[in-house]
Amino acid sequence: MIKLSPSILQAVSKPARYTGGEVNAVCKDLDKIACKFALSMPDVYEVGMSNLGLKILYEILNKRNDTAAERVYTPWPDMEEKMRQNNIPLYTLESFTELGKFDFVGFTLQYELSYTNILNMLDLAGISILSKERKNYEPFIVGGGPCVYNVEPIADFFDFFIIGEGEEVINEVVTEFITWDKETKTHDRQELLHRLAAIRGIYVPSFYRAEYNEKGVFKELVPLFPDIPKVIKKRVIKNMDDIPSIEKPIVPYINIVHDRLMLELFRGCSRGCRFCQAGIEYRPVRERRRETLYALAKKMIDNTGYDEMSLTSLSSADYSCLPVLIENLIDEYAGEKMNFSLPSLRIDSFSIDIAHKLQTTRKSGLTFAPEAGTQRLRDVINKGVTEADLLRACAAAFEHGWKTVKLYFMMGLPTETDEDLIGIAELAEKVVDLYKKVKSRRDVKVTVSVSCFVPKPYTPFQWFGQNSKEEFERKQRLLKANIKNKAIHFNYHDASTSILEGIISRGDRRLAKVIYLAYKKGAKFDGWSEMFNFKTWMQAFEEIGVEPNQYNLRTRDVTEKLPWDYTTPGVRKEFLLSEYKKAAAEELTPDCRRSKCIGCGICQELGVDIVDWKGNNDDDISRRDN
Amino acid sequence: MMIYRVEITKNEQLRYISHLDYANLLQRCIRRAKLPAAYSEGFNPHMKVSFASALALGITTDAEYADIELTKDVCQPEFFSRLSESLPEGINLLRAKKLVDRHHKSMNALVDMAVYKVILPADIDKRKFTEAVRKFNNALVVVFVRERMGKKAQKGRMVKKEIDIKKFLAADPQYDNKENSLLLKLRVSSEGTVKPSEVTKAICSEYIPDFNYDDILINRTELLAAGKNLLDIV
Ligand code: SF4
């Protein structure tokens, strides 16, 4: 057990990040446990503690009597320094056990710029960073989460990955481990990996060899054994009401990023925005029953004492029973001053009415995401929203008393012209004018946030070449010059983080060496702009001799094999390709949720259906035969 | 409407929690206990709980006080057991008392003394420290330079201010050689107060320059109003 002295804790910022003991944390006697599973998000406590997926897995694993799940996050550099000085290995927050003593260390992969933190954490724990060097007594390092649809750049560091939704497969992995652990005398890790590879959704990267053609372009991934799958398809939960979810979330002592309860209404979104990776990854849409949600909400509120709950989903306003659910919740908890909020709003007056009813967003202002400045470009990305929709929604918001709106856009989308960019400024201008018309006042604030587009695997834009750093910077200047109204605030980020994200997210196995070297050169917390150093990364690329532009700037030939073709959410490549072509032709594709199947192939490939509770009160589950 | 005054602790597990986080924690416990807490009116209602003082991060206490307003009457045994059960390991409920006087003064205005016990590092030179305390106590005036990060116009800059630290002492600091602890009785008034760590620094700075202030452990043992415990005055 690790003991921390006051001279360490008093010398670091936010010591409560490292002392555990929170309400609802689960502490078990590890000597009586068959499987010890450390769960991590490679970021600082306040970020890691906010992750929904980890909360779910924590409860599922801790429900088992034979298993203990404990948490570990990345120490902030001040704490890291103290730990290294005092030879304190990385430890978990429940039992203060060093990470090296666990059977599994699981990392959720939320964004590419957290990868160096993983290496740093393994190093701080004294665990071999490369999977091929790991000894039999070391933990199995496992990854999961949204980035698993291209894990090739970090394949060398992980023993295996879980592709898709983890609720069921995590139990299968643990059960297999416990059996192996009892049966085996040698504790040969290869043997367990072989057994795990037989489980659906498990990808063991060391069982495959990557090949490249003479031009240095990825050619294929070759299985090294006859009994392992050529392609690994994601795991998916068929019925969201059947699986255990969060009932007793940990209540942190300090403020975390999402310091509220999260009630997951449904999984998936089929609106079909062509830039959106989550839209494909989490298909099909599967709603929870209203009764299930109601019961979960009650348990969470009773078990934590939180006064705020977010009704979470990719597009919460699409939940078919939302008005009734909200009404019930508000009625039930009015006396207890519960706040309910929606993380995102659709651009329509229905959403504004709901937001008005909830009132929690009042302080912060409303956020809409038109994503592009002109109708033409919004059609390219299949964002089914018109200027009239946006203005109607804003008018409704202004009438309800809101004075602040945030508008989210992207720059660098396929086919984008300078006109489209200037369209962003014009649209914001129209929103300002609208306020004057509605309220006859001028005290409006419109924030325009523009991010740099990163093409992602398994989207219709996966072949598209990203804009260069210089091009992004030119566009930022151009837009800035076109925003003249004082009521409009323009926010944008350093383009270099998006460039690195663009390189890694469509990278291949050769990037492992670069990531390792960048880490050695001190890269960490790359997702934190104050810590990010682009030069370090560019030096790492140069020293390793890998040309970064081939990954992000190059528009790929659609016949090319892609490094990520082997871990798939189940979508048909022809569907993505047809969407890519329709984008170029500015053609729209409808939502499949309540109309007919548009053929992405996921339901058929994975044997799963859309679950949608249209009609607020009838309890007939609407499942459609595809 | 009714108010309970509670005497609670902040134990080792919560040492590194700020006062605001500690207050939030107590409020969540009250919610978990399903006590009929009263809330303020308005857009952003907050629970009507007021504390006697704001304890700094890094300090534990056996004597924290809060007034909790309820909308309905709850009898004392029920209040006590419901709240106790919902508290985590880091807080104990020692006593709870119904306030009879509806127009009671806020505790903030009443408190005039805080008593702290400072546990010193084990490797300290006890002889030297005894001597330092003696010299400190003999001095008529001890000027201490308080440094803090500036706010508002001075944001980002270190702001220095000289204070006569002895003005804030209710009694001479006492060093317990056996326990290796320092007993501090500090005045609390509208003119402000000093931190126990500041007094420790003022004692050591001249005689023990290499003293590691990060290594001391501070506990507040009492919080008093005219010599009386805050629960005994109601
Ligand atoms: S297979 Fe059809 S119904 Fe299922 S998610 Fe894809 S488009 Fe929608």
Quick summary:
Chain A is an alpha/beta fold. Chain A has 21 helices and 19 strands. The longest helix of chain B has 14 residues, at 19-32.
Describe the structure.
The complex is a heterodimer of chains A (626) and B (234). Chain A is an alpha/beta fold. Chain A has 21 helices and 19 strands. In chain A, the strands form 6 sheets. In chain A, strands 2-1-3-4-5-6 form a 6-stranded mixed beta sheet. In chain A, helix 14 (418-439) packs parallel to helix 15. The longest helix of chain A has 22 residues, at 418-439. The radius of gyration of chain A is 24 Å and the shape is globular. Mean pLDDT of chain A is 94; it is low at 616-626. With 234 residues, chain B is α+β, with helices and mostly antiparallel strands. Chain B has 5 helices and 11 strands; from the N terminus they run E-H-E-E-H-E-H-E-H-E-E-E-E-H-E-E. In chain B, strands 1, 2, 3, 4, 5, 8, 9, 10 and 11 form a 9-stranded mixed beta sheet that branches. In chain B, strand 8 (174-176) and strand 9 form a beta hairpin. The chains are: A alpha/beta (626), B alpha+beta (234). Chain A binds chain B through residues 5-11, 15-16, 19, 21-23, 251, 253-255, 302-307, 336-337, 359, 362-363, and chain B through 13-18, 21, 25, 27-32, 34, 39, 43-45, 47, 57-58, 86, 88-90, 212-217. The structure holds iron/sulfur cluster (SF4).
Number of helices of chain B: 5
Number of strands of chain A: 19
What topology, given as strand order, has the largest sheet of chain A? Answer: 2-1-3-4-5-6
Largest sheet of chain A: 6 strands, mixed
Largest interface: A-B, 28 and 32 residues
Estimated radius of gyration of chain B: 20 Å
Provide the residue-averaged pLDDT of chain A.
94
What are the segments of chain B in which pLDDT stays under 50 over at least 5 consecutive residues? Answer: none
Structural class of chain B: alpha+beta
* Distinct small molecules: iron/sulfur cluster
